[in-house]
Amino acid sequence: MSQISIRAEKLGKQYRIGAPLASYRTLRELMGERFSNPARGLYQREKNNHIWALRDVSFEVYQGQALGVIGRNGAGKSTLLKVISRVTHPTEGFAEIHGRVGSLLEVGTGFHPELTGRENVYLNGAILGMKRTEIDRKFDEIVDFSEVANFIDTPVKRYSSGMYLRLAFAVAAHLEPEILVVDEVLAVGDAEFQRKCLGKMSDVAQQGRTVLFVSHNM
Fold it and tell me: Which of 17-21, 154-158, 159-163, 182-186 is modeled with the greatest confidence?
């Protein structure tokens, strides 16, 4: 039986919406509001200015599987990936990860704008726990896939969003994480590059690694 790579159990994430009440109002002002409208405090408590971005989500993904999560904007897809990638903590439930995770959640996530493309490749590899020799072995493949060889020694703050994306995806896919997590940021790239990325994700899955990909486009 295949080993479980990702397991979510009754996962939920809640956010506060709106701004909290101003903290600089005087006690006299607060008491005046309470007596002028006694039901106001009750109404505000009942209104509950929170929203569930995720609620009661459970699933399992096995090693070597590729899972696509499709949903409209605001459905909670990116929040799900952030919880799985440990960018944010769930409000309820839990998610288990078995293996090293390579994430592409937003354009430039994990890149330092002042560092060059080359330096960011090595930085991301170190964050994933790879040795320098491992990164050296993969470096040329990463640059070739990203098609930014002419700018690899330029600080990434000068990259266009498309160049940023190309290098970020190439790093995430080629540094051999056991689990590849990709958000719908691929929409930033052109059609040819999107096809190239989808082909690479298919290759990753066929190598026995796990892919979790979200999009609003079926």
Answer: 154-158
